[in-house]
Amino acid sequence: MPVSNFQTHPVFRRGVSPKVRLLIYITVCVVMLVADLRFRYMEPLRGYLFTAASPVSTVASESAKLVSNATEHFSSLTDLQDENVKLRQYRLEGAERLLRFDELEQENVKLRELLGMRKKTPVKSIAAEVLYNVPDSSSRKVILDRGKKAGITHGLAVVDADGLLGQVTRVYPTQSEVTLVTDRNQAVPVQVMRNGLRGVMFGTGQGLRTLGDVSKRWQQAVQSDIGPGSLELRFVLANADIKPDDVLVTSGLDGIFLPGFPVAKVESVDREAGDFAHIACRPLGGVEKSLRVLVLGRSELPPSPPRPETGEPPLPVLPKAQQPGGRD
Fold first, then answer.
1. What domain range includes position 22?
2. Cβ contact 205:183 at 8 Å
3. Are residues 51 and 135 in the same domain?
4. pLDDT of residue 217
5. According to DSSP H, which parts of the chain are helical?
6. Are both 51 and 115 inside the same structural domain?
7. What confidence tens digit (pLDDT) does each residue in 190-213 have?
8. pTM of the model
């Protein structure tokens, strides 16, 4: 049998080539996408598929939520434990301070009794809120929501939780005007808490009033440190014992501001400008920020001693020109 006439038969029948099948599938997908976009015939099938896959997605999302909640729970538990430790430490420190304050208060009472000093009477305080700033670019004033009907009178001091804010300068029936300590027309007698050095604190308002007699180095410091809402301590000799970071409190020498209220902190001291030092200070109270304030009343001063002859209070001493029989 000749070899040339021999033919082999394939075991598997070969169909359409893979490239042709891929082209057919792509064409069918494009046709289905276009038809679905135009006729929306796949919406029911899509709904059935979503309903069938919903339990699987729910289980997967709940597992993820469980892991996330567990992580957040343990993280919050750790934060709470750290916060609890800090609060316990603060409580111990606060209890220690309270004990020391009680001891100091008792010691103060004993010293006053020993020295025969009169007991300080507590002053009346009135809580108020800041309504708005006075629309005046040349002053630093605010309006409170309490006035004469609430018991506020002219000249009372206004404070917040951090220190002195200002003084009541005008009183209306239901409102009152407060001139802040940073106003250029406001002056407060103060003293250095560290050594008792006294001086007068003035506000700078919107800026310094005079710079002609200040050295260039101090002018640069003033422009950077004493801006709007700052203070300046005046009438302090150049060789006085005062330095930056000293805390200034009210001295109470004017009879208006009670002694001991924080007013400002010293920012910079220039001793080369003349006989008096130029001292830049920054207010401790929330002069431009506080919305809730406290208006303090005045402490009652002791009565004048009676005259030995009649038992009546002594008459004020008049100049010779105004005394009876004196020459004009």
1. 10-56
2. yes
3. no
4. 42
5. 18-39, 43-115, 216-225
6. no
7. 999 888 899 999 988 754 443 343
8. 0.53
